[in-house]
Write a structure and sequence with these properties.
By secondary structure, the chain is an alpha/beta fold. It contains 7 helices and 8 strands.
Length: 195
């Protein structure tokens, strides 16, 4: 079996984000047997999902039946990782996940600049429709672990607690959207994912 950890970054982020790099560094030091894949996702939802699907298709083509996939997603990446879990039957760890992002990102419509890539684009109402279409119903919440910090300044943590109420939940006081002291979790995440 070939274990692969798929890390999905959030909105206006990149593979260079702090948590993605912390996860990759921990894996390189402690679990070099696990392949870490952190795809650079396009800035708009349908294109981002198409890139994720292509990444998984490439992994399946490379590893075939030996592929053992686990996903980690932060913020909007948590929303996407939920979809990966449902469609591909793998476990996923969700870090301050976006719930109903088509409602959340309405406040961000208009010109955007990705601070990691300097790419400029426009977030449109049509992109909210794309997000709505990407939502999935949770049929196997036992495959999900939600890591949430109460002082997330971007997302209301209570929405995630409601949405994922049947999943494994870890709620911490304080913190922020970036998830303070994430470096405490990679080992536990890898165990949960079964990699």
């Amino acid at each position: 079996m070939k274990p692969v950890l798929l890390y999905l970054h959030g909105f206006n982020s990149s593979p260079g984000s702090a948590k993605a790099q912390q996860m990759a560094a921990w894996m390189a030091e402690h679990r070099p047997d696990i392949e870490v894949v952190i795809p650079a996702q396009p800035n708009t939802p349908a294109a981002a999902w198409a890139a994720i699907e292509q990444t998984i298709a490439d992994l399946v083509a490379c590893h075939g039946a030996a592929l053992r996939l686990g996903a980690v997603g932060s913020s909007l990446g948590g929303f996407m990782a939920t979809r990966v879990s449902e469609l591909y039957g793998c476990r996923a760890a969700l870090i301050n996940p976006a719930v109903r992002p088509h409602e959340l990102l309405c406040d961000y419509l208009g010109p955007q600049t990705n601070p990691y890539t300097d790419e400029r684009y426009e977030l449109l109402p049509a992109h909210m429709d794309e997000l709505r279409a990407l939502a999935v119903s949770l049929t196997a919440p036992e495959r999900l672990w939600v890591l949430q910090q109460q002082e997330d300044e971007v997302l209301d943590y209570r929405k995630a607690l409601e949405e994922y109420r049947f999943a494994r939940l870890s709620l911490e006081c304080g913190g922020n959207h970036a998830f303070v002291a994430f470096e405490r979790y990679p080992a536990q995440i890898v165990r949960f994912l079964g990699l």
